[in-house]
Amino acid sequence: MSEERTEVASLGEFGLIDHLTRNNETRQASTILSIGDDAAVIDQFGKQTVISSDMLIEGVHFDLMYTPLKHLGYKSVVVNLSDICAMNATPTHITLNLGISNRFSVEALDEFYEGVYAACNFYNVDLIGGDTVSSQRGLIISITAIGEITPDKFVTRSGAKSKDLLCVSGDLGGAYLGLQLLEREKKIFLEHPEIKPDLEGRAYVTGRLLKPEARIDIVEWLAENDIVPTSMMDISDGLSSEILHICKQSNVGCVLYEDKIPFHDETKEVAYKFDTDPTACALSGGEDYELLFTIKQDDYDKLRMQEKISVIGYMTEPAEGKYLITRKGNKHELTAQGWTAFQ
Q1: Which of 94, 213, 266, 296 has the most Cβ atoms closer than 10 angstroms to its Cβ?
Q2: What is the mean pLDDT of residues 235-242?
Q3: Does the pLDDT of residue 137 top 90, yes or no?
Q4: What does pTM read for this prediction?
Q5: All residues at 6 or more sequence positions from 239 whose CB lies less than 8 Å from its CB, including other chains
Q6: Antiparallel, parallel or unpaired: β 140-149 and 291-295
Q7: Which residues contact 214 (CB under 8 A, 6 or more apart)?
Q8: How far is CA 291 from CA 21, 140, 169, 213, 238, in A?
């Protein structure tokens, strides 16, 4: 029995929007008017508003050969919410714009939206609008995320000071290795379609790529423990380039200790299997969506026992440079080799 396929053209633009948003719920008291009018209306009740926008292009940011549409919908939301978390804010709303070609059926878009709604539900965020247009080829996704924060409590990349501690949430390098594993299996499949993909049971690293999470839990934990980071950003392009962003914008140097960088056991196992150094995966890999932030030394005792956060170095005067201290105690200048757009 063949799966049912409904052509997008059979519904028309407004029919498609009605169909895809038929089960859309509002969760936020701040949502006054949602999808269905010329614009949405939100009232942030005396909070400041934080806004971030991101685009994902098929063939550049994702590959549908190994990315299920539901996972893609979920991840599209998460990578935007991560930017809101990186400002120390709470995400509340998103808008979603899609460019779709006629190779996508209504059922395929339903799958994508399932992931979008799953993320909205998990993060308590409202989808309040967007646009759906034709694309000549491929899938184009653009999301704007909106968040709220108590006035002037937002955290930028430019507030780090010399002697501040450099911290990171979670563990690093997994998403990059998940990508390597999936790309390897894609190559084998294209050359030998009869061979079934073998992901070797590596659910952790493939999950880090296909279903990342935004670290709202870290933002909440910092607030509960009365810690306001001096600077913060999320790790989308690799640890080294993100640290260098903070150094540049805050006009500071840094010392990063290789043996303090956190890794999941599976990340290390897969790295060695690929004959790759886990540290290189963390420094240059990207797409981990963990939070990188600096705190005053006075706050160290508050997070000393927190397993979700690792102190990986400290900030210095700008003239002291930016260095990585290896496990063997050697000193290397920190360079950015992460993802660079337009190359």
Answers
A1: 94
A2: 94
A3: no
A4: 0.90
A5: 168, 172, 256, 261, 282, 283, 292, 338
A6: unpaired
A7: 78, 79, 81, 82, 84, 85, 91, 123, 234, 289
A8: 32, 26, 5, 11, 11
